Amino acid sequence: MDATTPTWTFLTNHARILIMIARDPGVRLRDVAAVSGITERTAQAIVADLEHAGYLTRTRDGRRNHYAIATGTRFRHAAEADHEIAGLLALINGDTEPPAPRD
To answer: Is the pTM of this model over 0.70?
Structure first.
């Protein structure tokens, strides 16, 4: 980026990681971190945040983690609190209909 290009982005790292996990529930956090431009430790902290808030669950599958998105959860901010995250995931992933909640 040059000096005239804004440095902000529309998605937070939390949203970006949630989207990446929705696309590939077996994704390695090392890969998530590399694509997101953050450290692996930061990616781990974000996944812990998302898990603690109920947006995803993590289960161990051998040496790997497998993630499941709780698509019925709602956005945290009051301005979007009446919308489920399934709509965002469907929009970003190009789905014509949001997935059914798996809570």
So the answer is: yes
